[in-house]
Amino acid sequence: MKTSSSRFEVPVLLGTQTLFNIGFYAVVPFLAIVLTNDFLLAGTAVGLILGIRTFAQQGLFLAGGILADRFGARSVILIGCAVRAAGFITLSASLWSGTPTLWMFILGTLLTGFGGALFSPGLNILVAAAQVARENNQHSQAKQSTLFAWLSITGEIGAVTGPLVGAALWGWGFATVAGFGSAFFVLIGLFLAIALRRPNPAESPTGQRTDASKQEVPPGGLRRCLTDRRFVAFCGLHASDLLAYNQLYLAIPLELERLGLPTQWVGLIFAWISILTLTLQLPLARLAGRIGAAATLRFGYLCSALGFGVLAFVPALVFGNETGPARILCAVTLLTLGHMSVHPTALSLVPKFAGRRPTGSYFGLLASCGGLAVLLGNLLIGWLLTQSGDGTVPGFLPWMVLIVPLLLASWLAAPLVRMPRTLTTQM
């Protein structure tokens, strides 16, 4: 039966997210160190290469979703594991000779990004199908975000464990670290080839029974996704969340540096984010199930906007120390609570927007819009942060670039998710 199969696959899917993140975070956090120390690149070049890697993943999510719709989530996940394994072994091979090979290293970073663009939408599709099956079995919406909330938790476990694994292997050099990552993703692929059941031709991507003659993906799936004006609007609004959360890697470290705080505070902040995620993600998901998606999105976007508002308008002396970290910790806490609220909720809404259509293009468009927002938004925010440091522009202006989209999302996203179901399923 579909229900029993989905119940069996849920631990596999959630465990897979942990494994993906262990393999990813065992290698990727060390790329900047290798580019600086082994390839002797300047900070601007390092940022450009890492930015290309990020865009190769986030920007190509839409392509991964389309391929998952066309060839099936299971197949694309397995191909994604193979591509990421190839990327990691290419990173390792770039350091095998006496002289590091930069073009090979860049190729490896691109392959790692594209591998993620393949398997991440596929994993979301399978989790969404399991969630729909669970809701149909329960005849209740009370736990509509639970599986995606668990996906965040299991992913966070991997994000905490991965760097520890990479650091333990660092004594043998980055080539060994990257080689481990490659072997790890090969093993993940073999595990999933056995553990993930092959799709039943009589089931749709959302887990609903359908006529076997209608199993193929309808032509123009991407076009239909792009012409779903409500969903495209939702993607544009929700992109503010990924842009905001990405500031943990850009604006927050720069603010710590501006205050003269030691680099170790970056690690402490990420440790605090992990604690918040592991302890509060499920309670927030249960609260979201009770108050509904529209209210959860409004709360989450406002919470993130309030976090940046602290950085923009609240004097540091309010927290007792002008150069202390309390103000940043407060902002990061609010930002994390906002992201934990809206991210699982947005993912859980994708099958409802898609209706009976395949969900791969929908998941892909949601992620790609966020990736584009990060690519363009970070250029503007980085420039404004530099200008504000020189006193050329007011200090609150960079944060307003983040606050305004979040406020718009909190105002406009709720009507989109309150739409009648018939509107989401029509062509």
UniProtKB/TrEMBL annotation:
Segments traversing the membrane: 12-33, 39-56, 76-96, 102-127, 147-166, 172-196, 231-252, 264-287, 299-320, 326-350, 362-384, 396-417
Membrane topology (UniProt): Multi-pass membrane protein
Cellular compartments annotated: Cell membrane
Matches recorded under PROSITE patterns: MFS
Coiled coil: none
Organism: Glutamicibacter bergerei
Pfam families (UniProt xref): MFS_1
Main location: membrane
Keywords: Cell membrane, Membrane, Transmembrane, Transmembrane helix, Transport
Name of the protein this chain belongs to: MFS transporter
Domain Major facilitator superfamily (MFS) profile, residue spans: 9-418
